[in-house]
Design goal:
Elements lengths: L6 E6 L1 H18 L6 E6 L3 H10 L5 E9 L11 E5 L9 E9 L3 H11 L5 E9 L12 E5 L5 E2 L15 E4 L1 H11 L1
Parallel strand pairs: 2-3, 2-5, 5-6, 6-7
Antiparallel strand pairs: 1-9, 3-4, 8-9
The structure holds inosinic acid (IMP).
Length: 188
Amino acid sequence: MDMKDDILEVLVSTDEIQKRTAELGQQIGHDYQGRNPLMICILRGAVVFLSDLMRAVPIHVTVDFMGISSYGGTNMDSTGVIKITRDVDTNVAHRDVIIVEDIVDTGLTMRALVDLLNTRAPRSVEICTLLSKPQRRKVDVEIKYCGFEVPNKFVIGYGLDYDENYRNLPFVGVLKPEVYEKRKEEKG
Ligand code: IMP
């Protein structure tokens, strides 16, 4: 069965993502002229965004990866207590860090991560997220670079998953309700 049969609605199209990613890349190039920012990609959801974004940045950047899981959360909700499942290899001290994230929802994960990175004496820490759901925010996080604001709906595609699926969709969309019902039945 085709993944696209599970999609209720496309929220952000491939063309829109491509255009906005190019703009963000230019903006980062402009803002970090003469510096050498470290882009930290949050696994796994931000991988697709990073790979397009880094190629849109016209200055030297280095990249590294960080895996984070949320203690006690479900795959649709986070808790704010984070566990680093994979840390960066790069020394963050004195670096201009740009966290590359797929989506800021409640903000709890980014709040905790920014606080953690700040203990490592970086020169600066900023967030670049493909998506943001401002209506869901529980804590304040300053997002310097945001691709798109989306409504309070669970979204998938372009790196974002539901139960590890749909990351390879080339757009951001919403699933049909029956997909969740079917998955719940399968899991019992
Ligand atoms: P926060 O801590 O609530 O901001 O959640 C951030 C993390 O929750 C993201 O990195 C995603 O992994 C996940 N998440 C939040 N909303 C969605 C969504 O709509 N689709 C897929 N994953 C989501």
